Each structure stands twice: as structure tokens, then as C-alpha cells.
Amino acid sequence: MDIQIRLACLEDIPHLESLMCESVRTLQVNYYTPAQIDGALGSVFAIDSQLIKDRTYFIAQSDRQIVGCGGWSKRATAYGGDSSETGTEERLLDPSLDAAKIRAFFVHPAWARRGIGSQIMRQCEVAALAAGFQTIQIVAKLAGEPLYSRFGYRTIDRFEISLPNNYTLPVVRMFKEFHLNLPSP
Description:
This protein has helices spanning 13-27, 34-40, 49-53, 116-130, 145-150, and strands at residues 4-7, 57-62, 65-73, 100-107, 135-140, 154-162, 168-177. By secondary structure, the protein is an alpha+beta fold. The longest helix is centred in the first third of the chain and has 15 residues, at 13-27. The radius of gyration is 16 Å and the shape is globular. Mean pLDDT is 91; it is low at 181-185.
């Protein structure tokens, strides 16, 4: 399997939206009802172009086909996207005080369970650490909880996000702290 990981660009958005929709409608059906999925698409499950502009959103591709995506954020917004009614908060986080955010992971159903999410997660963690963050937080879809647990994230909260269609979406807040051996001053 020849997968390349690269930074997303704004021109990728139409392909990312298609991937996201197909991923959610196929891979989330064992975790969410059709009404929850419909309500979450475009609000919770949405492309946040700020991640692309910040150069913190990655694409996995095979040949020229986008087969996965995901990123991290140095901003306060935990989930949602451009057209979201969830209220994005563009405030930059302080790496010495705040946790970076893992955001918007989606894999094409035909490419699921092949390590694509893991490859993107490694890229995100390396980039967040390089930016000075010592902790990372995720508001995870239920289907993503096992992947994040394998990466050492621990569950700190379970809650529901209100959706525009009056349903709610159960999610899991997870957290990871990096223990860096920094040189003594």
C-alpha cells in the first residue's frame, strides 16, 4: 500500500467534503442513527478551512485519490467547520497552558482499517509537539475512540452535542499528555 501524507490545500475542499460524507455515512452507522448522522453532517462533521489555512490539516492519498484526512489545531475550536452552527472560536491557544486539538479525522470506507488514521495521527502529534504543545485533546466520534486509546489518549468526559435537527450526538472527550525529557537549563 503506497500512501503519501501531505498538507491539505483549499482546492482539496470539494474532495474532502465528499470523502467526509461517504466516511460518516458508512463507518458511523454502527454508532449513530441516520438522524444523528444527518444532523451532524455540515455541523459537527464539517470541513474547517481554518485548519487548512493554518497548515495543520493532512491528507492521505494513494496515487491521486484522497483516502483519508485529519488534523490538529492550535485554535480553541474543538469541532465543527465553516458552515457550522457550533460556534467556532478562532482564538490561538497558548502551548504552555492549553492543549492542542485533534480535529476532523475521516477515512474512505474502502481504505478503513489499513493504518491511514494512525499515519495521520503520528503526523499531527509530531507537528503539535514541534509547535510547543505538551498536551492534546480530542472530541472524538464513538468510532474513533479505539484508535485514540491505542495512541495513549484517555477518556475524560462523555457528553452530547446538540444538532441543528434537534437530535444529539454522543461524543468522547479524550486527552493525552506528552512526557518530554527536556534538557536542564
